[in-house]
Amino acid sequence: MRKIIFLRFQFRALLCLFTVLTSGIFALNSCVKMNRQPLEKRYYNLEVPRTQELNEPLLNAVVRVQRLQISPRFSGREMVYKTGDSIYEADFYNLFFITPSDMLTQDLREWMQESKLFSNAVDPSSLVRTSFSLEGIVNEFYGDFTKENGEAVVEMQFFLIDNTYAVKKLIFSGSYKKYVSIDNKSAISLIKGFNQAVTDVFIQLEADLRKQAEEIVKTHAHN
User: Which of 6, 101, 128, 143 is surrounded by the most beta carbons within 10 Å?
Assistant: First the structure.
């Protein structure tokens, strides 16, 4: 009988010791988790300034810059890297401040306003009556990290529509693809590459639209 009581006492002591040790481990883990610093997210914005200035608008007309559509593969705020054949990765710790579609649309509208191709460039929410609409699609917008140092890849397609016809008429379309080498495979270097690639696209788009606008001016002059 005494032996049984002793064994029960010994079992209870071991059980208490196990409980204390387990509680200590959980408490230690909790402390470690609480003291652990979360990974910091960084937010980036595109900067696509237009430096050249022109005085008078080429066309006395308003253009509506529609919201740019973007491939679902690159529509999120996370930066996207190509790391292998048909392999793409999203970076959840380096993000755009707003979605690429909103950023690029705003940059394009400001660029068109400053280009003086039209008297004014307005956004889709404007109630102003417009003579033209500029639409665009972003097919590619990623960092190609399969290259030695990496490069920014941007591909965009644009359409200029004349709204003055009873049935709206497509008068211009153009596709542009740019590859810009970057210093290293980092988010900040990729942003600089994006800035340059988008700037190059907008410069070429403006040059092509200027030719189209000059043709419109000539046609109206003859009429």
Answer: 143
The stretch 200-209 carries a mean pLDDT of 97
Would you give the distance in Å from CA 18 to the centre of its chain?
54
Retrieve residue 48's tokens: 């696509």
Q: How far apart are CA 146 and CA 87, in angstroms?
A: 10
One DSSP character per residue, 115-172 reads: HTSEEEEE-TT--S--SEEEEEEEEEEEEETTSSS-EEEEEEEEEEEETTSSS-EEEE
- Please say whether the beta carbons of 75 and 101 come within 8 A: yes
For residues 143 and 183, what is the distance between their CA atoms, to the nearest angstrom?
12
Q: How crowded is the C-beta side of 147, counted as CA atoms within 13 Å?
A: 18
Answer for the pair 178, 201: CB distance below 8 angstroms, yes or no.
Answer: yes
Among positive and negative, which fits the CA dihedral 95, 81, 66, 214? Answer: positive
Phi, psi angle pair for 108, to nearest 5°: -65, -40
Contact (CB, 8 A) for 144 and 151: yes
The two beta strands, 169-181 and 132-144, are unpaired
Q: How far apart are CA 97 and CA 81, in angstroms?
A: 17
Fold category of 42-222 in CATH:
Rossmann fold (3.40.50)
Output the pLDDT for position 194. Answer: 98
Residue 48: what are its φ and ψ, rounded to 5°?
Answer: -125, 75
**In angstroms, rounded to a whole number, what is the distance separating the alpha carbons of residues 223 and 10?**
109
End-to-end CA distance of the chain: 120
Amino acid at 216: I
